[in-house]
Amino acid sequence: MAQLRQEAEPNEAGLDTQALDRLDRHFAHEVDEGRLPGFLVAVARGGRVAHLTTYGKRDIAAGLPVEADTLWRIYSMTKPVTAVAALMLVEEGGLSLDDPVARHLPAFADPRVYVDGSGAEVRTRPAAGPIRVRHLMTHTAGLTFGFYHTHPVDALYRDAGLESSVPPGKDLAETIEVYGSLPLQFEPGTQWNYSVASNVLGRIIEVVSGRSLDEFFAERIFRPLGMTDAGFQVTDEQAPRLAELYGEQEDGGIAPVPGLPLRGGRPRFLSGSGGLAMSAHDLHRFMEMLRRRGELDGTRLLAPGTVDLMTRNHLPGDADLRSFGSRPAHDVPGNEGVGFGLGVSVVIDPARTRTPAGLGTYGWTGVASTAFFVDPGRDVTVQFLTQVRPRGTSSVFPAVRRLAHEAIRD
């Protein structure tokens, strides 16, 4: 087990201590008001952690504090890991961003696109072109989530047992067959809609590599990077360090809710979309590999140009998520001025984000209010970890991005 530690003083790293105090106080207030159980926030510059704060509880009922080695469900922050794994296979020649998904997953051989109607009356037509791997990585494939409740195709996902993205009892391969049987919301490449696409990408990784997703992640990413706690399951030895998961209640408070089935052995379903847990140390190592453009401590996972490709906006016409997104994306505050790369969001217009985020800042969030970003122009990485599922859109990521960037002096 490795633990994240502060390695430099803020002043040495060009960070403003008063601004960092504001960052800490903002989220400590959220804990004190009962809206968060506790949190960890870390800011690093040039690879050295120059600010590290833990506050509150990882388990309120048990009275256990958040500590530097606490384990967190990172949910959708799994997606950038899946993207890195896929790009490794692209570099090795086993996969291309322009491959039709059906080349690897026959369930997607004849995609159909929604026309009109609902339920049993839905009308569809053949898609004009195939779903390609790059569509999965950019969430422009036409796939969706069953829990959106904004489109008739969302309802078809629920009817197929996909309210939580996974039919009960099925593994990744079986689940992909269900996805492939359902119509697309739109023609591939014509809109951005956050979706189950990273699960499909995870299955492609399994097919191309000949390894299960957990084996590929462990052998090719986690062990080489020294991410000692990262994985799809938590051992008996690790379990006491796992933070309790909470959900936001109608009155604004929080209460424990069921989380990922991390204990009790290897899960049947390995979600490339949201299945991982890890420590702050693990996340720091992953971010550092990206900040250093694919290499860390002599271990190279990706070529510098591949990381550059991953972290540039891939939406047509350099569009942002609000203008190119479907209704769920259009309605999310903070999507202005933010595009999407291969598995990460990318700031393309800092002024429109209404934060001091640097041009090219990239990262992603998780449904339990976790967040990370890398600002390559300022050589900064930031992570924020807590465990609360909000009832609506989380305000954590915009607040972290604004407050952390305000601390950068040069």
Number of DSSP-assigned strands = 17
Helix and strand string, N-terminal first? Answer: HEEEEHEEHHHHHEEEHEEHHHEEHEEEEH
What is the rounded distance between the termini? 34 Å
Major beta-sheet overview: 8 strands, antiparallel
What is the averaged pLDDT score? 95
Radius of gyration: 20 Å
Helix fraction?
25-40%
Q: What does this entry look like structurally?
A:
The model has no long low-confidence stretch (mean pLDDT about 95). With about 400 residues, the protein is α+β, with helices and mostly antiparallel strands. The strands form five sheets. It has an eight-stranded antiparallel β-sheet with strand order 3-2-1-16-15-14-13-12, sandwiched between helices. Helix 5 (about 170-180) packs across helix 6 (about 195-210). The protein has helices spanning about 15-30, 80-90, 135-140, 150-160, 170-180, 195-210, 215-225, 280-290, 305-310, 320-325, 325-330, 350-355, 395-405, and strands at about 40-45, 50-60, 65, 70-75, 110-115, 125, 245-250, 255, 275-280, 295, 300, 340, 345, 360-365, 370-375, 380-385, 390. About 30% of the residues lie in helices and about 15% in strands.
Annotate the secondary structure layout.
Elements: H1 17-32, E1 38-45, E2 48-59, E3 64-65, E4 71-73, H2 78-92, E5 112-116, E6 123-126, H3 133-138, H4 152-159, H5 172-180, H6 197-209, H7 213-225, E7 246-248, E8 254-256, E9 277-279, H8 280-291, E10 295-296, E11 299-300, H9 304-310, H10 321-324, H11 327-330, E12 338-340, E13 345-347, H12 350-353, E14 362-365, E15 371-375, E16 380-385, E17 388-389, H13 396-406
Parallel strand pairs: 7-17
Antiparallel strand pairs: 1-2, 1-16, 2-3, 4-9, 5-6, 7-8, 10-11, 12-13, 13-14, 14-15, 15-16
Helix pairs in contact: 1-13, 2-6, 5-6
